[in-house]
Amino acid sequence: MPVKQEQNIDAELRERLRSARGVFVLTGAGVSAESGVPTFRGGGNTAVWKGLPFDVISSAGMVARDLPAVWEWFDYRRGVLRHCQPNPAHAALARWQDRFERFTLATQNIDGLHAAAGSRGVLELHGNVWRARCVACGGREDIREMNGGRPPACRACGEWMRPDVVLFGEMLPVDVWEEAAGRACACDVCLVVGTSAIVYPAAGLPVAARRAGAYLVEVNPEPTPLSEICDATIRRRAGEALPRLAIAAVLMGFNRNLLVQMQQATPATLGLAGTLAVLLCYGGHLRVVGESSAARLRMGAVGSLFGLASTPQPGTCAGSILWA
Ligand code: APR
Known about the structure:
- The chain is built from 14 helices and twelve strands.
- The protein is of the alpha/beta class.
- The protein folds into three domains: 6-34 and 86-123 and 172-251, Rossmann fold (3-Layer(aba) Sandwich), CATH 3.40.50; 47-83 and 127-165, SIR2/SIRT2 'Small Domain', CATH 3.30.1600; 257-323.
- Residues 282-293 and 296-324 have low confidence and may be disordered.
- Adenosine-5-diphosphoribose is lined by residues 28-30, 33-34, 39-44, 54, 108, 126, 194-196, 199, 219-222, 224, 237-238.
């Protein structure tokens, strides 16, 4: 089946996102390119340090040979990152986390910009440049709270600390990897944003998701080895594509968790302020959509909150509330 190369977002992709319960997103350096973070291979300026290719300076062998040099390289990267802020792509993904029943954001990036944009529980497959890890006891510390010695010593056991980043030739953190792999294989839609998809095992996640039946979408201005197995590709920069995708699939402002809380709430737990908020929230919607079947369902949903009418089916209620 030919891969749909799109500039725009087609009806099937919109529908897949609207009806998705489980969404898995894998991001790479490209999602941070518009924040000014250099990528490694394509699209942005390639990173080489003091004549050493990044995959040499960022390797396990280099930690063994010259830990101070590794610190110098990551201090340089932190220096670049210090001035970088999350961009609209990070912000869009942060908003999506409350939109789906199961939402997973896994990243190869070590820049911490997803969390800075408000994303919770980000699976950091390659670690985080703002953390240090003890080479002996494995203790972790936030580098921003440590003194400037290089390499720094572990406050727990006194041994050297190294950047808590997965370097070439090293294993990914097993717990993070297993969670990512499990969730990739259980999603309805898998979105791959801003990665050249050549570094494994992370690049294997979307392949596994596709094999498990997920609808696979790539967002990247350039084709990658993954493009040929995608169901759709969006050849745009992430900072443009993701906010558009959110609007196109009506993902803005809908907070699934809030809806679940509201469905579980009663006037007793909500209190006066909360009850008014519910009424205002649902009242507003009523105004927009009028007497359609969704309005009736919505009335039902409001009613069920106050034990006035039978509770509509979970998911059905949610589904029809938003897309009358
Ligand atoms: N929006 C979306 N994609 C972009 C953008 C953008 N604004 N700008 C560039 N890209 C794409 C490029 O076309 C390229 O395919 O992002 C990709 C960046 O690829 P790499 O630099 O190879 O980064 P990544 O795939 O994240 O690298 C994987 O390799 O070096 C290791 O550990 C490092 O995590 C990294 C891993």
